[in-house]
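Contributing new records

If you add data, match the layout below exactly. Sequence lines come first and carry their own label; structure lines follow with theirs. Keep one chain per record. Anything else will be rejected by the validation script.
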Amino acid sequence: MIDKNVIAAHDAWRAERLAQVTGAVGNLALVDYQPVGTEPEAVRRMPALVRREPGEPGVRVTSTGPGLRIRTAQGERPVEDETLLPFLQPDGLPLLSAGAMTADAFSLDGSDVELRLYDAQAPAFADFDGIEAAPYDPAWALPATFEAHPEPQRVPWAFTRASDSGHTKAVPGTLHTTIGGTERALTVFADGSALVLVFADSTTGVESYAPGRFLRVEPVASGGTITLDFNRAIVPPCGFSDFYSCPIPPAENRLAVPVRAGELRARWRNRS
């Protein structure tokens, strides 16, 4: 019998995930993205001009109408003079807003920059019918050993948006584990302070989202042991909005066994 506290913690995690996905700047809300160049350009759906300075960690924003505001960890204020909107951080800030619209500045690796636009009244909210998930299964909490690379690496990666393929991910090392009786060496990339495993399995495209799912784990020192709890696997952002560009599982992260654990795919009322 599974400890009821474990089930309660898992249920709480699922509720938190649902709240994130359905929030005003959650995955369902993304309705557009706009590449940002060095010349000022009007922002679609917001009263703003946006441009970038090469090498600067963000985009520069100028108001062209009332109601444009910027929210940072220090608080919220109106945009008056040209203002730097830094790249989105792990805490979900900073954000630019006007009415029901919100935007963040994003770059995969610092080369190309885009403004991502969220609508708190996006049509996807009405179509969304929840996240299909497998029942909690303790057998899918697997021990793994982290092997750090001698030097940090930036590795070219493939993305769901073809034009993004070739952009790099920071790859600090490899996770060694056994899945379905087979030893695996899995590539993980860094996302803020966490490590992310992008994987596919034999359910991908049939029972679970294609091209794969994500699993976030906390980093450990090289040689340290962590738990790969596939019960915490998630549908990536592009499973909720086509305007995201998501990393695709590399060959070494494509598993021949079915991983019936964690989130499987989004459910929709009016989509096949």
